[in-house]
């Protein structure tokens, strides 16, 4: 019997009971959910291992999805007793999306694989998806029933995820109203973060684009990184990983700063939780070794640090329905699969003021032609320097990508690309050609052999050194008024400087800014 029906029967049997008695019965039933869920999680991770052992098919196209889903589930299993039901539901749903993507890849390659391998993998993936979906529904149902009981009895059974530690330094919106920050709305978003307007926990005031309104760890506890150690099995107090583990809405969130400059070599993926700010201002903070991963989380700020040398992955991996994420003043390079990626139903992301340089792939927004959930994806790509990369600056699938006030230099194959309904609004950017002059993947003679579902439009861009820009404006992609409206609220629109000046301004101001570079940055 699923958890939902256990709860329904319990509530029906408690109709005539007093509120205190009903709460006691519900609390007892909640305790019974843990063995049930842990058994299911064990089955899910066993299925993941089975799929991963099926050979080249999964290794080629699903390794990252399976690894991410598996590690997320292991984390949930270890944290089960102290994780809010809604957060559990979000994790289960995210993992279901990940394995669903694997199944789509598998179907695409089915005709080239042994029948037994296909059937075994399909069975494992489908079973896993069904179990994850049911776990998500059960957790959500329990959350709703708990809320109903709370309204009857006057107190919730599960501790509110909005509460924060008594040791937390809490900053409320009322703290933003002092005279010192009047006029901040007009300051350029490249410098706001280092001015009185964005000082300390005022940083969210500087957010813009689709991530406008993000608060990160604003209401959470303060945590200071004091050492560069990283033990992913048993993080030590003072380490970055220990601080990241303090995050999550259940704990009220966390605002992480650094005691001094550090080079931190991660020994495993760093899983960022909801309600987290990683604030590297004031020091030279460099992260290497492994990626930062945002799986099904919301309300995250990653600000002013360097991340590179992560090997086979991308540097910042945002996926599985993550939302309201601001990546700002990042210096990122040297990653085989790219730098900042936004995938699998994630949305309301702003990537800004960053120095992004990679030998091949740069920024991927939407990973698969099968991920139709990315039709709701909205990403602002603002005032970054895309340098010396071959392609994907960004590449946009399905969703809406606003590319504003960026500097492009020395792209190889293309700078801006899209597939399967992707929409790129290129505005007030500066393109400085070197290896190739065309911005998009357009070639002479391509004729009608291109994806006519995409939309790539240029407005007020500046083209230097002979740059050309082929717009993709098929009649059926430009018909509606909504198609040409980037933001529904003009307050989300970032400030724009003349694109003719970007080549002089951005090299001094983008990426992690500290010390002498900070004094040189001006707009």
From TrEMBL:
Example of a GO biological process term: pectin catabolic process
GO molecular function: metal ion binding; pectate lyase activity
Needed co-factor(s): Ca(2+)
UniProt xrefs under InterPro entries: AmbAllergen, Pec_lyase, Pectin_lyas_fold, Pectin_lyase_fold/virulence, PEL
Organism (species): Physcomitrium patens (Spreading-leaved earth moss)
Family: Belongs to the polysaccharide lyase 1 family.
Reactions accelerated catalytically: Eliminative cleavage of (1->4)-alpha-D-galacturonan to give oligosaccharides with 4-deoxy-alpha-D-galact-4-enuronosyl groups at their non-reducing ends
Cofactor stoichiometry and binding remark: Binds 1 Ca(2+) ion. Required for its activity.
Signal peptide: 1-18
TM region(s), chain numbering: none
Key word RNA-binding present: no
UniProt keyword annotations, A-Z: Calcium, Lyase, Metal-binding, Signal
Protein origin, superkingdom: Eukaryota
The protein, known as: Pectate lyase
Enzyme nomenclature, EC number: 4.2.2.2
This protein's record includes keyword Signal: yes
Pfam families cross-referenced by the UniProt entry: Pectate_lyase_4 (PF00544)
Pathway: Glycan metabolism; pectin degradation; 2-dehydro-3-deoxy-D-gluconate from pectin: step 2/5
């Amino acid at each position: 019997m699923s958890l939902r029906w256990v709860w329904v029967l319990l509530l029906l049997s408690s109709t005539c009971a007093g509120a205190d008695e009903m709460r006691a019965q519900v609390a007892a039933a909640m305790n019974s959910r843990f063995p049930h869920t842990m058994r299911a999680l064990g089955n899910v991770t066993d299925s993941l291992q089975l799929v991963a052992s099926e050979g080249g098919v999964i290794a080629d196209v699903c390794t990252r999805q399976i690894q991410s889903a598996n590690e997320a589930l292991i984390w949930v299993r270890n944290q089960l007793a102290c994780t809010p039901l809604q957060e559990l539901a979000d994790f289960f749903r995210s993992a279901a999306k990940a394995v669903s993507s694997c199944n789509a890849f598998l179907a695409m390659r089915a005709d080239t694989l042994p029948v037994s391998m296909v059937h075994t993998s399909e069975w494992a993936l489908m079973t896993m998806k069904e179990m994850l979906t049911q776990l998500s529904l059960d957790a959500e149902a329990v959350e709703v029933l708990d809320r109903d009981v709370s309204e009857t009895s006057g107190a919730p059974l599960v501790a509110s995820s909005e509460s924060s530690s008594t040791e937390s330094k809490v900053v409320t919106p009322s703290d933003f109203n002092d005279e010192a920050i009047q006029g901040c709305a007009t300051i350029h978003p490249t410098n706001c973060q280092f001015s009185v307007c964005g000082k300390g926990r005022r940083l969210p005031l500087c957010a813009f684009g689709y991530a406008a309104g993000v608060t990160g760890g604003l209401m959470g506890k303060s945590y200071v990184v004091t050492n560069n150690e990283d033990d992913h099995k048993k993080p030590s107090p003072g380490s970055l990983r220990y601080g990241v583990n303090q995050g999550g809405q259940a704990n009220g969130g966390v605002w992480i700063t650094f005691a001094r400059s550090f080079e931190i070599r991660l020994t495993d993926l760093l899983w960022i939780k909801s309600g987290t700010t990683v604030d590297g201002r004031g020091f030279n903070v460099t992260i290497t070794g492994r990626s930062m991963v945002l799986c099904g989380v919301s309300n995250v700020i990653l600000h002013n640090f360097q991340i590179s040398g992560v090997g086979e992955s991308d540097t910042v991996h945002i996926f599985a329905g993550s939302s309201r994420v601001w990546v700002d003043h990042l210096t990122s390079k040297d990653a085989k699969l790219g730098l900042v990626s936004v995938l699998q139903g994630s949305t309301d992301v702003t990537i800004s003021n960053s120095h992004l340089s990679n030998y091949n792939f740069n920024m991927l927004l939407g990973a698969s032609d099968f991920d139709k959930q990315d039709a709701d994806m909205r990403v602002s790509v603002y005032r970054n320097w895309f340098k010396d990369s071959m392609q994907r600056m960004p590449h946009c699938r399905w969703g809406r990508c606003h590319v504003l006030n960026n500097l492009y230099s020395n792209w190889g194959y293309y700078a801006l690309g899209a597939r399967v309904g992707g929409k790129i609004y290129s505005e007030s950017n500066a393109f400085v050609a070197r290896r190739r002059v065309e911005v998009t993947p357009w070639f002479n003679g391509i004729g009608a052999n291109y994806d006519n579902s995409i939309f790539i439009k240029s407005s007020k861009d500046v083209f230097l050194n002979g740059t050309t820009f082929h717009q993709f404006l098929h009649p059926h992609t430009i018909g509606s008024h909504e198609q040409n409206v980037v933001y529904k609220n003009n307050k989300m629109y970032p400030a724009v400087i003349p694109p003719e000046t970007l080549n002089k301004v951005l090299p001094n101001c983008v990426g992690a800014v500290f010390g002498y570079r900070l004094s040189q940055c001006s707009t």
